[in-house]
Specification:
It is built from 2 helices and 6 strands. By secondary structure, it is an alpha+beta fold.
Length: 97
Amino acid sequence: MAVNGSDQPQGFIELERDGHIDCFYCHPNVAGTGVGLALYQQLEIRAQDLGLSSLFVEASEAAKRFFIRQGFTDEGRREIERRGVALHNYRMTKILN
């Protein structure tokens, strides 16, 4: 988790043991400041420490660009429905060295 000088959360990212990035959020006030990148870089270090060979995520339209810049491959758009609302996301993967 990233916090500001007043200990207010600014972002977080969650890694599951199978390499799934479950949640990734940055407060709009820190967009473009490197907070998200720093969180992701720490997650990737943790994944390598755990011996994971790959990561995967279901990325939103906005997050897709971020993950592509981090070396993820777009495996295709997924159509989903949540409580009667049609949504979409992108299945993305990254092979770790």
